[in-house]
Structures are given as C-alpha cells and as structure tokens.
# Entry
Amino acid sequence: MPKKKKVEVVSKASKPLEKAINDVFHEREKIRKLNEEIKVLKNDKKDMEAFLMNMMQEQLGEDAKASSKLATASVSTDTVGNATNWDKIYAFMVRNKAFYLLERRIANAAYRELIELPKHKRHGVPGIDSFDKTTVKLLTLKA
# Structure
C-alpha cells in the first residue's frame, strides 16, 4: 500500500486569503454533493429508460414511438464500434487513410511524456501547440 504524503502548512494564510481558500473549499464540497445526487439520478433514469424501452417494444414493436402530454419517446437502434484490437485498428486506419474513425483530442498525460523525450524536447510535436494551463488545486486537511 502506497504511503500517504504528509502535507505541511508552509505559512499561515492572511484572513482574506484564508476566506478565499475556504470559499473555494465549500463550493467544491457543494459540487461533490450535487454530483453524488446526479449520479443517483442518472442511474434511476437509466433504469426507467430500460423499463420504458421494454414496455414500448412489448406493446408497439422494435422501433416503437409513443407520446404523452409532456414528451415523445422513440426506440431506435444505432450501430456503434467497440475497439477490441487497437493495433489492427491503427494498421487499418493507416492503410485506408481512415483517421476520421477517431475523435480528435490530445491525451495530455501522454503528450507531456512525449515532449520530455530528447527527440521532441526542442521542437515539440508537429501540429500541436503547447500552452501552460494554470489551475488551483485544493487539498482537504484532515483534523
């Protein structure tokens, strides 16, 4: 089991700074509680959708559509891809110039690792502009 880092308070914050830290802490806690509620609500909604889909398909058939006073619900089927072998997928993409199969986003951790390599340290990676994103990190102190 990894050892927990011990956090030491380097300096006592001024009252306005302490208040700002506490304000951010309290807002973050509110967000955490709301996210927990959202997670429960999303699970409930997923269960309700499964129940509704079963009812609609039993009563109306596979591609069912029904309405209430508030909304219209429809059941449809879409084909989606599930990657099972990335090496084969990448080989196919290169052979067929099918890079459109991927969604476009840079994996930041992998990018940071790559630009630390001597080969890329000076010139970076073609097509990617680096910038430093500054954020505030808040660590909860246990009493």
